[in-house]
Design brief:
By secondary structure, the chain is α/β, with parallel strands linked by helices. The protein has helices spanning 15-27, 51-62, 83-93, 105-109, 116-121, 136-144, 148-151, 166-174, 185-194; strands at 2-8, 32-37, 68-70, 98-104, 125-129, 154-156. α2 (51-62) packs antiparallel against α9 (185-194).
């Protein structure tokens, strides 16, 4: 089984996440894509809502796609938040799977990855989704530091650069603006019902 691993805070999950996951599934011939929410604070700011809300939104967003699944391994109390520690745990759960890691170009170019060689050694493929504002030379600097025998496992998905981000969605909600159609309808309804991210009359 070819298994895609799509990690992130998903704070909240939005339509671009789903587009990238489905595109990776098709382009890489994946049997299933795992959405793996994290409490990882090593590279990004603290999530604004708790894991229970983020998991609920992921479940709502992926319910219509049988090839998508939620995995909460990286939310457990003993999880370190490092991908190099996550992958062996997923290997225990899915011993027969071949792993493809899915990531946005901003996460690869703008962060310093711990034990990146170790991460790549655990994977069959490491695929990068283009993100608006991430220069190709920034990615090249990261790739140049990767040993040649591992570099061939990294590929860029042939997708348009996507401007949509969770930061934009949270900002719009904090300004009492609608984000409907930037997020899946079940996620929009959940945000409104739970009054997350400062959602107010924009959800009426």
């Amino acid at each position: 089984m070819k298994l895609g691993i799509f990690g992130g805070t998903f704070d909240p999950i939005h339509n671009a996440h789903l587009f990238v996951a489905e595109s990776a599934r098709i382009l890489e011939g994946l049997d299933r894509v795992l959405f793996v929410p994290t409490n990882n604070q090593h590279y990004r700011s603290v999530a604004q809502v708790g894991p229970e809300h983020r998991c609920a939104m992921v479940l709502g967003a992926i319910a219509s796609n049988p090839a998508f699944k939620l995995d909460d391994t990286d939310l457990r109390k003993d999880a370190t938040g490092y991908t190099a520690d996550l992958l062996p745990r997923l290997r225990e759960k899915y011993p027969d799977a071949r792993f493809t890691f899915i990531i946005g170009a901003d996460s690869l170019a703008n962060n310093t990855w711990e034990r990146f060689d170790e991460v790549l050694e655990s994977l069959e493929r490491f695929v990068v989704a283009p993100r608006m504002g991430v220069r190709p030379d920034a990615l090249q600097r990261v790739l140049a530091a990767v040993p040649k025998n591992l570099r061939e496992r990294i590929a860029t998905l042939n997708l348009p650069e996507l401007p949509e981000s969770a930061t934009l969605i949270r900002t719009l909600l904090s300004q009492n603006k609608s984000v409907r159609y930037l997020v899946p309808e079940p996620v929009w309804q959940y945000i409104v019902s739970q009054k997350l991210y400062g959602a107010g009359s924009a959800g009426a």
